Amino acid sequence: MYKRSCLCGAVTFELLSEPKATSSCHCKMCQKQHGAAFATYSSLPQSDFRYLSGQEQLVSYNSSGNIVRKFCGVCGANIEWAGSASHPDWVSVAVAALDTPFYLSSIKEVHADSKACGLVQG
Where is the signal peptide (predicted)? Predict the structure, then answer.
């Protein structure tokens, strides 16, 4: 249904169903991982997520508790995170890296208490 690839194209995967939830996360881990003010992820059942190529290029990082983040070891592009205690059979994928169009009806803001401060011009 949706195709995705990392920046260098080594890792490709597809989503076999429509994501069930999309959120922009403002937590410090997502900010640091993406080098941005927030990260937008869509979540779906793990069974509806399939790697097509490049699994040998994946690097995993246990960022907290059971949460494991995966990224391409060649270009560093974020691929997925999984391991939520409340949704152990789900995976969340970075929306910005989808190669096929993805139209969102809503995006939930999470960890807004950690929002990055605005830039100050001097």
Answer: none
